Each structure stands twice: as structure tokens, then as C-alpha cells.
Amino acid sequence: MDGKTLREMSLEKLIEWMGRAEVSSMAHGQGMTELTYRQMLLQVKATEAQIEAAKAETKAAEAAVRGTDAAERNAKYVFWSVIIAAIAALASAASALVSAFSTFHPTR
To answer: pTM of the prediction?
Structure first.
């Protein structure tokens, strides 16, 4: 059988064809060669998929780092806004105390 016919066979048919061949025959050798070829192709595809997955994981990690940096900046902004709000509240309380004191203790 020629290589083109073997290449077009389904895996099941190839194995069935090899099962009928004598182990030391040329047909068995051709079948083993075809199986090895298909295995190599699948390994190459698997390797390419792993490379693409690694690239995607790298991008995800970079995005996570950017997200962490943004969260850190946001936390700093919230911290300083709370400090400023506390200072404003203290100033407002001081103003209210001065106003209340001057209302109940007028100067003569």
C-alpha cells in the first residue's frame, strides 16, 4: 500500500490493517512508520498548544500585576481622602465649638 493511502486512513483502519500484517512484513513497517509520523504531528501540535497557553498565562500574569498596581494606587487615594475628610471634620467641629462658645458666652 502506498504512503498516501496510509495517510488518508483513519487511525482505526490503520491499526486494523496493521493487525492483519505480519510483524516482520513491509506492511507492518509502513504502518509503524505512519503511526510514528502521526504521533510526531500530535506532539508538535501539543507543544504548540503549550506555547500558546504559556503566552496566555504570561499575559494574564502581566494583567494581574497591572491590576495590583492599580489597586495599590486606589488604596493610597482612599487613605489620603479619609485623612483629608478627618481633617475637614475636625475643622468643622472646631468651628462649631467656637460658634457655640461665642453664642453662649458673648463678649461684652
So the answer is: 0.57
Taking a C-beta distance cutoff of 8 angstroms, is the pair 50, 24 a contact?
A: no
Tell me how far apart the alpha carbons of residues 66 and 31 are, in angstroms, rounded to a whole number.
Answer: 53
Q: Where are the domains of the chain?
A: 3-104
* pLDDT tens-digit readout, 48-73: 999 999 999 999 999 999 999 999 99
Q: How far is CA 25 from the centre of its chain?
A: 50
Chain centre to alpha carbon of residue 55: 9
- Between the alpha carbon of residue 58 and those of residues 49, 51, 53, 90, the distances in Å are 14, 11, 9, 48
Give the whole-angstrom CA distance, residue 42 versus residue 9. 16
Q: What would the grid cell of residue 66 be?
A: 497591572
